[in-house]
């Protein structure tokens, strides 16, 4: 590891994305964002070049193809961003012993377990997005002995594109919304995920890299709900600020057809993260309230 690992630079890819913006806000000047065009998985030569240029102590890969439905028709581009690109990045990091935190998703699971998934459960992605993210996990772990994969889920924030912002915007325009109530998961604030990542990096900074750190961890907010439950929570908070409260109907998955099949129940069990790093994300509900307050104050 670079000598200045405790206070060294944290290079974050996907610089305009939800997680990268949250990391920069929480981490201060230590966090250096990179993104397109400087860092572009579609131009593989930019990957190692960015690592060489910024000389980070740590890298967080927050760049990904996240358009779940569009990925069904853009398989190669999704693969470059979610699988081959991350593999090349992991190799560049490994060449300099730089620990890499790579972000993955609950959509690597089928959603049929009927209970929260643990890290050792078999994966069975049902979508191109999920399959390319699953392949990315493998590529990263194969390329670097200093890689940590954090599987998170249902990420939202006050910036960027996400379900919470979609619901606030839709609620302002429509008296009635229909939202699936039979898909279960753990909505996770990108701000809370950023705090968790910084805490993990602080721990690695204290102890130095330990071989036992490498591997996959689940990292979502505590508590669980459905997309319907998340929409209700967000819109009730918006209504507290004087926004109109639409009627929200809980519908079945079959009543909201999508090109990519979402998991029915992709809840993740996060005990390993707490056990190894002492890190636990807060409950999703207060985080939704904070995020909606931010969205409304900046509208
Ligand atoms: N959003 C979610 O609900 C969830 C996300 N995750 C994972 O968390 C991580 C962060 O997600 P989030 O912050 O929401 O993502 P966003 O969609 O907000 O941001 C993704 C970023 O990746 C960049 N990007 C996309 N394609 C490429 C490429 N080919 N080369 C370089 N950069 C690229 C985008 O760049 P540009 O701005 O130029 O388009 C964007 O800045 C990702 O790994 C994602 O898979 C996991 C679970 C849930
Ligand atoms: C907009 C909308 C969506 N839905 C449904 C469709 C879908 O089943 C569910 C969620 O819709 P979205 O398309 O917004 O979310 P989706 O893109 O599936 O979100 C996923 O993104 C990727 C990146 C991940 O990694 C996952 O963890 C997850 O967050 O809500 C409604 O029922 N009503 C609506 O008005």
Automatic annotation (TrEMBL):
Database matches in Pfam families: RmlD_sub_bind
EC class of the enzyme, as a word: oxidoreductase
Molecular function terms from GO: dTDP-4-dehydrorhamnose reductase activity
Keyword set, alphabetical order: NADP, Oxidoreductase
Entry note: cofactor: Binds 1 Mg(2+) ion per monomer.
Reactions this protein catalyses: dTDP-beta-L-rhamnose + NADP(+) = dTDP-4-dehydro-beta-L-rhamnose + NADPH + H(+)
Record pathway: Carbohydrate biosynthesis; dTDP-L-rhamnose biosynthesis
Keyword Oxidoreductase attached: yes
Oxidoreductase found in the keyword field: yes
GO biological process: dTDP-rhamnose biosynthetic process
Cofactor entry: Mg(2+)
Residue span, RmlD-like substrate binding domain: 9-294
EC code(s) of this entry: 1.1.1.133
Purpose: Catalyzes the reduction of dTDP-6-deoxy-L-lyxo-4-hexulose to yield dTDP-L-rhamnose.
Similarity annotation: Belongs to the dTDP-4-dehydrorhamnose reductase family.
Listed NCBIfam families: rmlD
Protein name in UniProt: dTDP-4-dehydrorhamnose reductase
